Amino acid sequence: MEQKISVQKVPPAQVNIQQPESSKRDNNYAPNSRIYVRDVKGRVETMRRLLGFALMAVFVILPWLTYNGEQAILLDIVNQRFRIFGLTLWPQDLTILAWIFMISAFALFLITTLFGRVWCGFTCPQTTWTFIYMWFERKLEGSRHQRMKLDQRPMNADKFIRKFLKHSIWLVVALLTAMTFVGYFTDIRQLFSEFFVFQSSAWAVGSILFFTFATYGNAGWMREIMCTHICPYARFQSAMFDKNTFIVAYDEKRGEPRGPRSRKADPKEKGLGDCIDCNLCVQVCPTGIDIRNGLQYECINCGACIDACDDVMEKMGYPKKLISFTTEKRLEGGKTKIFRFKSVGYGLALLALTGLLVLDILFRIPLEFDATRDRNTLYRENQQGFIENVYTLRIINKSQQSQVYSLSAHGIEDLDYYGPGQVELSGGEVRSIPVTVAIDPYFLDTSLTEISFTIQAEDDERIRKTINSNFIYQ
C-alpha cells in the first residue's frame, strides 16, 4: 500500500524569512579584501617545504642539463620536436605524448582518491610560488599582525621602502621563473645570454614578459582565488572523494563543544571539548577557511592547520591530532580501506597505460619515411623510350645519432631507380631527396601501377620502412 506524507499548507504571510544584516555580510573575495596568513612551523610544514624545495630545484636544474652535447630537455615547438634526454619526439609520435598525458591524469586521479587534494597543498606550482612570495613578505613586512598594521598605516618612507622591496623581489622571482620556463622551449643558455643584452627575439621577450606578470599576479595577488575560483581541479575533485579518502579533517566528537579556558582548567568539568577556539587554524590557512566547518572544496590539504593545532594541543597538555590527515570512515570509528573499487580501478588503468607507453617506446622505429609523387608532371618519356615518374622522398632521422640509410625502389620488373643509393642524416635531421623511377612501358598493363620504396639503416636492420606509391602512365 502506497504511503503518503501529509503536507500542511502554510500561508505566505506566516513564513518568516531571516535575511542577513547588510552590516554583517562578508565577501571573502571583494577587491579590497585580503587574507593575512599567519606563519606556522611543524612536521607537516617542514615536509611541505622540503618537497617544494626539491621540486623547485628540479624545475630550475633540468633545462641546464646536457645530453650528448645538447640541451637534455628541449621542447622545440618551432622545429616541431621534443627532446627528452635520449628520446626525441616528433608530431608523428602523437601516441607517446597521448600516453604521457593520460598517465599523468590517471596518476592524479589515483592520488586524489587515496590522499585527497595533496597535489594542491604540496606540489602544485601555484601553491609553491605563493608560499615563496609569502616568505619574502614575512621577512620584509613582519608577522601577520605587523602586516595588518602596516597596511592600515598611511604611506610613509618606511612603508614605501618595505612595499617597494617586496614587489621588486617578487618581480625578480617572477622574471627568473619565466626565463627558466621559457628555457624549456628554447636554448636556455642562449636565452639568458641574449635577454639581458636586448638581443632576444620578439617571441622570447613576449613569452618571458607574459609569464613574468602571470607569476607575479598569480602568486602575489590572486593567490587563493586561483585555487578556489579559477582552477578546475577544485570543482571536479569531489567526484573522486569518498569516506576512505585521506583529507585534512577536524575531529568534531573530540573537539566540541569548543571554548576558551586556562591551561589548568579541566575541560570535562566545564563541559567543553579539546578545541579552545583560538582560531589559529583559520589564521594559518592560505585559503582562509575554517576546517572545523567540515570538508570544503577550498581546502588544498596543505596541513598548515594541523601544525597550528598540534602546537596548541601540546601547550595545553592535550593529545595531538585534533586536526589531522584522516578519513571520514576513521572519524566515524571505522577502518579505512585503501584497496577499494575506485582506487584499484585507477591503479589498474595507470599500470595499463604505463605498460602501453613502455611498449610504444620499445617498439618505436626512430625513422619517418614518406614518398610524394611530383604532381606538376604526370609522366615523361626519356631517350630510351622508358616512362619516368619523379618522386620526393622525405626522411626524418628521429634518433639523436647520425645514421646511414640505403634507398631502393621495387615492385615492377626491370624498374630503374635514379637517385642516391645511400644517404647519411645527422640526429634529428629532416631531408627531402628527389628521385626518378623509369619503367619500360611493355611492363605497364594499366595507367596506375603500384610501386614501393624501401629505406634501411646500415647498422641496424630493425630500422627499416617500406612505403607504397603509384606510378602513372597514360
Give a topology summary.
Layout: H1 43-61, E1 66-67, E2 70-71, E3 73-76, E4 81-84, E5 87-89, H2 94-115, H3 118-123, H4 125-141, H5 144-152, H6 157-182, H7 188-195, H8 202-222, H9 224-230, H10 233-236, E6 247-250, H11 252-255, H12 267-270, H13 280-283, H14 304-316, E7 323-326, H15 328-331, H16 341-362, E8 367-373, E9 380-381, E10 387-397, E11 403-410, E12 416-418, E13 422-425, E14 430-439, E15 448-457, E16 464-472
Antiparallel strand pairs: 1-2, 3-4, 4-5, 6-7, 8-10, 9-10, 10-14, 11-13, 11-15, 12-14, 15-16
Query: Count of DSSP E strands?
Result: 16
Give me the secondary-structure category: alpha+beta
Count of domains = 3
Uncertain runs are 1-5, 12-32
Number of helices: 16
The average pLDDT score comes to 88
End-to-end distance: 86 Å
Proportion of residues in β-strands: 15-25%
What best-fitting shape do the alpha-carbon axes yield? elongated
Radius of gyration: 33 Å
Main beta sheet strand tally, sense and closure: 5 strands, antiparallel
The share of residues in helices is: 40-55%
Keywords: 4Fe-4S, Electron transport, Iron, Iron-sulfur, Membrane, Metal-binding, Transmembrane, Transmembrane helix, Transport
Transmembrane segments: 50-67, 96-116, 168-185, 197-216, 344-363
GO molecular function: 4 iron, 4 sulfur cluster binding; metal ion binding
Organism: Aliidiomarina minuta
